[in-house]
Specification:
Strand content: 15-25%
Number of helices: 16
Oligomer: single chain
Structural class: alpha/beta
Low-confidence stretches: none
CATH architecture of the largest domain: 3-Layer(bba) Sandwich
Strand order of the largest sheet: 18-19-22-21-20
Largest sheet: 5 strands, antiparallel
CATH topology of the largest domain: FAD/NAD(P)-binding domain
Length: 464
């Protein structure tokens, strides 16, 4: 959809083929419905904990059916507005409904919803078929039944006890939301850390918050089978454990949708991560590009949109679109956890311990966090070298972390140092004020290294 809008805006002739619902994973089974549930859960939590602010607390049970209906209403509203195929048709985009197969380097064969077959020629073909949830090979899972992100938002009867298999952002985000809505939630993860790609010290703080709210978080769990009930059976340190549930939600990753596209026949290479592409989205066939989950990489809506725009630019305009951009992400728990660039361990592994400086700031020193009664922290990772210092990683645990991280992405992209952040005036009181405080502290520390210059300058001035 992003590519079609960009290309149409450039005056190109554009066609889009969709066999399902326009809007894709983000609208129907990802970002939009999950954030609608997160918002409802936050409202329930605020009502329940209002006593901390001197207000009467409300501990009534949530009307889960109404919560799910509102989520679907929000989703439908977006589908009828910004994501409506009619809006794209008004931009001049030809929207086909049906199945598409690549039948040549510049040809796509479409079988429409009425069974008609059409061969469409195009100078450039862009594959945006996305991905789907991975189903793990666990004995009894298919027999008992389970939910994924493609089905959990379609529930007609909301369960009271849920076991999540997987310890990534989807499980952690939904588990907290479900728990706040009165659904007892357990997360089972095979690894030794939840949210393994995020900064560990901030993950540990988030885990403590989730545990305090009642979410059961279990790592190093080898799930061996699922029994009727359902009951999830796993081993922890060789000891068998059992978790009773009303529903099991599987969220162990995604796989690209490459089947049935005819890619092998036209010479488009694929691998375990999906369609093989270069940094600009071009496949092994020069006229065919791919963007989003189908080509692996960072599986986020914003990453897919950026890749799509880069592909259109690369295909039709002199010069090349910006490739290799820093892709941030956020897990929308409360507090939210946002990530950009390298973690501390990644930076030290790449540059060495002596060339990495880590800046930490607890939100205990942030006035906005104090007024809001929230916790969290900021970790900034800086590389030192012959050309000075530059920010290479940024990690924020705070309410609104997904908003705060965008400034830090720009700082990483522009090669700024942490001290540079101190020269930017931030609105007070905000969480982002801590970035200015961190930058100011870094600038002062740097000035102390050169204080002998200040003394000499002071003596010369006095003698005059």
């Amino acid at each position: 959809m992003t590519a079609a809008e960009v290309a149409a805006g450039l005056g190109l002739s554009v066609a889009v083929v969709e066999r399902g619902r326009a809007g894709g994973d983000c609208l129907w089974t990802g970002c939009v419905p999950s954030k609608a549930l997160v918002a409802a859960a936050a409202a329930a939590h605020q009502a329940r904990t209002a006593g901390a602010f001197g207000l009467p607390s409300a501990s009534t049970d949530a009307d889960l059916g109404a919560v799910w209906r509102r989520m679907r209403a929000v989703r439908d509203d977006i589908a009828e507005g910004d994501d409506d195929p009619a809006r794209f048709e008004a931009l001049g985009v030809r929207v086909w409904r049906g199945d598409a197969t690549v039948t040549g380097p510049e040809e796509v064969t479409i079988t429409d919803e009425h069974g008609g077959v059409s061969a469409v020629e195009a100078r450039v073909i862009l594959l945006c078929t996305g991905g789907r949830p991975v189903t793990p090979a666990i004995d009894g899972l298919a027999d008992v039944g389970f939910l994924t992100t493609e089905t959990v938002f379609e529930l007609e009867e909301v369960p009271r006890r849920v076991v999540f298999i997987g310890g990534g952002p989807v499980s952690v985000e939904l588990a907290q939301a479900f728990q706040r809505l009165g659904i007892v939630s357990t997360v089972l993860h095979s690894g030794d850390r939840l949210l393994a790609r995020d900064e560990p010290e901030l993950v540990d703080e988030l885990v403590s918050t989730l545990a305090a709210e009642g979410v059961e978080l279990c790592c190093n769990v080898d799930v061996v089978r699922v029994e009727p009930g359902p009951v999830v059976v796993g081993r922890v340190a060789g000891i068998e454990r059992r978790w009773q549930a009303d529903t099991v939600v599987v969220a162990v990753g995604r796989q690209p949708n490459v089947d049935g596209l005819g890619l092998d026949a036209v010479g488009v290479a694929t691998g375990e991560q999906g369609v093989v592409v270069d940094s600009h989205g071009r496949t092994t066939v020069p006229s065919i590009y791919a963007a989003g989950d189908v080509s692996g990489g960072e599986m986020f809506t914003h990453a897919a949109a950026h890749q799509a725009a880069v592909a259109v630019r690369d295909a039709f305009y002199p010069g090349r679109g910006q490739a290799g951009a820093v892709v941030p992400w956020a897990t929308f728990t409360d507090p939210a956890l946002a990530h950009a660039g390298l973690t501390v361990a990644e930076a030290r592994g790449r540059f060495g311990d002596r060339r990495v400086r880590v800046h930490r700031w607890s939100l205990e020193h942030n006035d906005r966090a104090r007024t809001d009664g929230t916790t969290g922290g900021i970790v900034l990772v800086e590389r030192t070298g012959l050309r000075g210092r530059r920010l290479v990683g940024a990690h924020v645990l705070a309410r609104g972390a997904g908003e705060v991280i965008n400034e830090l992405v720009l700082a990483i992209e522009r090669g700024m140092s942490v001290a540079d952040l101190g020269s930017v005036v931030h609105v007070y009181p905000t969480i982002a004020t801590s970035l200015q405080q961190l930058g100011g502290r870094a600038a002062v520390e740097r000035a102390h290294r050169y204080r002998w210059l200040l003394k000499r300058a002071g003596r010369r001035s006095w003698r005059r």
